[in-house]
Amino acid sequence: MVAAMEVEPFHPELDDVLRLGCFLMSLYAGSKLFSLLRVPALVGEIGVGVIWLVSGCLPEYLNRGLQVMGKLGLLVIVFEGGVGMDLAELRSNGVRAFVLGFMGMVLPIAVVGATLLLLGYPLIESTASGIVLSSTAIGFIMQLMSEAGMVATPMGRLVVSAAMIDDVLSIMLLSVLTALGSSGEVGGVGVWPIVRPLVVSVGILVACLVVRATIGKALQTARTCCTQRRLISHLPTSLSRRSDTSCIEVDARPTSVTTVQPAIFGYPEGASEEQVRQTAKVASTVTEVPAGVTWMNSVNIAILLSMGLGLALSWGAEALHSTYLLGAFMAGMVASAWPSFPSAWEHKTSQLLSWLVKIFFACSVGFQVPVEALLRARFRDVALLTVAAVIGKFASGLWAAPMCTRGCTKSMVQVGFAMVGRGEIGFLVAGASLRSGLLTEESHSATVWALMLATLLGPIMFQASLRLNGEDK
What we know:
The chain has 473 residues and is mostly helical. The protein is built from 19 helices and no strands.
């Protein structure tokens, strides 16, 4: 305790503050420049991150602090994806999203693995490279859909759901890689370490859906009861004294009701014509009927509670060997049980989220690029592996829409290119595979190049695909 009190307070140097300011300015400028060039802004943000990484101008403590902020930005992006998820549409397209996510994982492993086998690499090394290149970054997907204005569209929700499923399956593959690295052979991999992420993820999904349904019913009941009490207080004395108020029916829509029409009322049995007339008159003058009790209408408290839930579920999912991103996503879905939350969330957090997203792509992605590994690669391996990585993900778009339906070609192409983008998880898995001996320096370098090029090319190809004519078949 005494030692802790003797630690001198930290005073940042002015030079470090100026470096941080220059970094943020260059990040903003790079983002806007690429937007003006009709290239996804996230490509410019990643490029700015790589440049600052190579320059080494930022001190280590700022480097790490910015990466922490970037990881927080990723959580917020994924949380927002859960807020915008339509449960009815998820139920109708859940099977398609699962198939899309599953094929988006399997096809890159098969195509990349076959390519490395043809280049003379061993089977386990080829498989490890395919696993590294199999994940789709949900942060990339969310930002791509957001920049294209497609987050709330059926295709946007389909791709986001598939990316989340892909992320869970990638955690399973990471378990396989970890076991292979420790045992050195496939036979040494246990069943439970492989299936545990899937079992835990399904448990979290079911539990959160039950909680969301419960909260939704509780909010609806509270709105209905509160509205009934408010209306009864405005009724004539001869009617408000009746103990039987079940005859009154109100519209329990999620938003506040500004004017209540007489048609929504039921009248007591045997009510006189004068009582009916007085009740209709009261109903036509009641305004601003509350949509719920006071604390339910507090935007700040709702956002605070939802953010706390997001952090708690993220920690719980990670501790249970699922992915922390699933926890953030499901927290957003639970928060959307309050009908006014999506618009309130967007209004309160849009500016903050914009900067967190920029820092995420520059620092959590750009700072993770192993520049030294890029210098050791052979051009032939890089070129062939990059083509294989793009084709493997692009081919998963074949499951984006039913064959021979109107607009299916456009949907398949756009979804296929959207799935091409990777993220920081791939760089982390590549480094872990190198340290465990599953990848050699040559295969690691080629894999990192393919990972980086796919990360940069995916958003560009997706934006180009948006120009496809809407009449394509």
